[in-house]
Write a structure and sequence with these properties.
Number of helices: 14
Radius of gyration: 21 Å
Number of strands: 24
Largest sheet: 4 strands, mixed
Bound molecules: ligand EPZ
Mean pLDDT: 96
Distance between the termini: 7 Å
Strand order of the largest sheet: 22-23-1-24
């Protein structure tokens, strides 16, 4: 298994480009299932999760062509609306084929994703919404089996804000008979990006970005070309890496407008953050000030940036209180950060992080995607060498990570 070796102490400086958003590209690529016509997507990040999804779509009969960051999908020949356990267990987001398959083919069999390191990750809201639209849904032998001649528009109220739940139901509603209203919808920018892509394909959607989304079903969608939005979590991750090293960086091909809550916290920590039209600049102080935070659905502080801020607070002045309200087990990076000398106490869904003078390099183990990012950030400032093991987690969500960090002056080597 690959490892990353980091020699701590380098101050990050320079400029790198941000890639397309993993969490926008995943639902957006599934939208190709909704039409017989080819759909072209640009700014698609080259990530393992994207590769996994494209293999899953190919297994269903989608014709996939890919050149650099451009992907064209043709779902005219789909003859196997099934997502097998073998595929889904490696990437939970595969559940995003469920809505489009039921909408277009009237039937789908998708393996239950099962839990993952950060939590149980149920999909009951996805199922509840499809049932509201008239689908007969059974869960047998670990598979969700949904069947309906044609979905009917319905009013759906999700019990909690769910990003992929909103996305699955919005895609399903595009071809339903009548209007669907999704209340308590997720407001994440990735939901808006998906809605923009669907509208370009002929869908009738209004309200995306708010907590009530209206979709008027149409008979069919057509082909389109859509550019995936920049990855706001990749952006936030590099901003944190620059912040902890007292660095000064410019991130291009991204926007500050999706990161208000994160930028607020970076400024509270003492950083200067300048938003440009399609770039962000950060200049960090010699020593950061601890910042407390509480994760919540967008536009509040994103859970996907919690681990990175735990690493930032580990070397800041003062004590930070971090409350994780979205997932039940998203503090696994804490014990690994403690191996590097961090002073962290966990009490349920709250972490108390007391900044220390210096972290010491050590061998640590990645447990999930964003936990891995926090260990990399800590390794950048730890004294001596840090080895991060099981970095296949990182490769799922960060494109060319060591290349980009290296371009900013970090001393990072991948050990095969
Ligand atoms: C999306 O996951 C993201 N993944 C996650 O990013 C992100 O952390 C999460 O949203 C929250 O922002 C993708 O977009 C591919 P949820 P998702 O449904 O949709 C509960 C990363 O690191 N819930 O919004 O799976 C659920 O257990 C990943 O890039 C139900 O109970 O998250 C959680 O506690 C990690 N039943 C909460 O809702 C359901 O049917 C929010 O989950 C659905 C969700």
């Amino acid at each position: 298994m690959d490892k990353l070796l980091i020699a701590g102490g380098a101050r990050l400086s320079g400029e790198i480009a941000i890639s397309g958003a993993k969490n926008a590209a995943l639902p957006i690529l599934c939208s190709a299932l909704l039409t017989r016509e080819p759909v072209t997507y640009t700014n698609v990040p080259r990530l393992n999760d994207i590769g996994t999804l494209l293999r899953l779509l190919e297994q269903m009969g989608v014709k996939v062509s890919r050149e650099d960051d451009t992907v064209t999908l043709d779902a005219s020949g789909v003859d196997n609306p099934v997502a097998s356990y073998e595929m889904v267990k490696t990437m939970r987001a595969s559940i995003l084929v469920l809505g489009p398959l039921v909408a277009r083919f009237g039937e789908a069999r998708v393996s239950l994703p099962g839990g993952c390191a950060i939590g149980a990750r149920p999909v009951d809201q996805h199922i509840k919404g499809l049932q509201a639209m008239g689908a007969t849904v059974t869960v047998e032998h670990g598979y969700v089996h949904a069947k309906v001649p044609r979905l009917k528009g319905a009013r759906i109220f999700t019990d909690m804000v769910t990003v992929t739940g909103t996305e699955n139901l919005m895609m399903a509603a595009c071809l339903a008979d009548g209007e669907t209203v999704i209340e308590n919808a997720a407001r994440e920018p990735e939901v808006v990006d998906l809605a923009n892509c669907l509208v370009a394909m002929g869908a009738q959607i209004s309200g995306a970005g708010g907590d009530v989304i209206r979709i008027r079903g149409v008979q069919a969608l057509h082909g389109a070309t859509h550019r995936v939005m920049p990855d706001r979590i990749e952006t936030g991750t590099y901003l944190c890496a620059a912040a902890v090293t007292g660095g000064e960086v410019r991130l291009t091909g991204t926007s500050a407008s999706y990161l208000d809550a994160v930028i607020d916290k970076l400024m509270d920590a003492g950083c200067e953050v300048i938003a440009e039209r399609d770039a962000i600049r950060l200049k960090a102080p010699a020593r950061l000030t601890a910042v407390s935070l509480r994760t919540s659905p967008y536009p509040a502080f994103p859970t996907d940036m919690q681990a990175q801020f735990m690493a930032l607070n580990a070397v800041a002045d003062g004590t930070a209180v971090i409350r994780e309200t979205i997932f039940e087990n998203r503090f696994m990076h804490a014990v690994e950060l403690q191996r590097l000398g961090a002073d962290i106490k966990i009490d349920g869904n709250t972490a108390f992080v007391k900044g220390v003078e210096r972290l010491q390099g050590a061998t640590v183990m990645a447990t999930d995607l964003r936990a891995s990012a926090s260990l990399i950030i800590a390794g950048l400032v730890a004294e001596g060498e840090t080895t991060v093991e099981r970095i296949y987690h990182l490769d799922r969500g960060y494109e060319r990570l060591e290349e980009k960090l290296g371009a900013l002056g970090a001393r990072v080597t991948r050990l095969r």
